[in-house]
Specification:
The structure is a single chain. The chain is α+β, with helices and mostly antiparallel strands and about 200 residues long. The chain has seven helices and eight strands; from the N terminus they run αββαααβββαβαββα. Strand 7 and strand 8 form a beta hairpin. The protein is globular, with a radius of gyration of 16 Å. The relative contact order is 0.17.
Length: about 200
């Protein structure tokens, strides 16, 4: 796997984070979080089908968790550019995605969508836009992603976005107090260029 970034102050995503703008796709807008998102965030995140697939989301998930998360994003505590995923037409909050810069020479993505909005290709659309932002506006060469082996939906999102499978490993979940088998995937700039016209 990639080396941990010892000097993340020089990571190419930092300038992008400092100038974070709203990203717009056909049906979605990816924007900065606001404290007004807390009730909707808590409602969607309080779902074990989501938290069981993540390594850092508590369950049950209450509004105070949402407020603490938004505050940490606002304070820059995350080594990531974090976006609220919303429906363009009505502004409804539906999920979260991020570009992480804790690894040297590569970015990692993370994402989840509320269960109400599964099977509508919203997640794929959001990740397409996130990838385009990362590769299109920085010089990063690779974007990585990890998913639990049992998370077929997330794996399909990565496949539709052009990621290739690297291998399996274990990842420790502080919240679940155990290690889970994970799949590791990668998308390089060359592949992204060949797939720029996302379908």
């Amino acid at each position: 796997m990639e080396d941990i970034c010892e000097d993340c102050h020089s990571h190419p995503l930092l300038e992008l984070k400092a100038n974070q703008t709203t990203l717009s796709s056909e049906r979605l807008e990816l924007r900065k979080f606001a404290y007004e998102d807390a009730p909707a965030l808590a409602e969607l995140a309080n779902n074990s089908k989501i938290s069981d697939m993540l390594v850092s989301m508590p369950h049950p998930y209450f509004e105070q968790h949402a407020i603490a998360f938004i505050k940490s994003v606002e304070n820059g505590d995350h080594q990531a550019i974090v976006y609220a995923i919303t429906l363009k037409e009505c502004g409804t909050f539906i999920g979260v995605c991020e570009l992480n810069y804790s690894l040297a020479g590569v970015s990692a993505i993370g994402y989840w969508i509320g269960e109400t909005y599964w099977n509508m290709d919203y997640c794929t659309e959001a990740i397409h836009k996130l990838i385009d932002e990362g590769f299109g506006n920085t010089h990063i060469t690779k974007i990585s992603a990890s998913v639990r082996i049992i998370n077929g939906g997330s794996r399909r999102v990565l496949e539709k976005c052009g990621f290739r499978y690297l291998g399996d490993g274990l990842e420790y979940s502080l919240l679940n107090r155990g290690s889970h088998p994970m799949e590791h995937h990668i998308l390089d700039r060359k592949t992204w260029i060949s797939l720029k016209q996302w379908k």
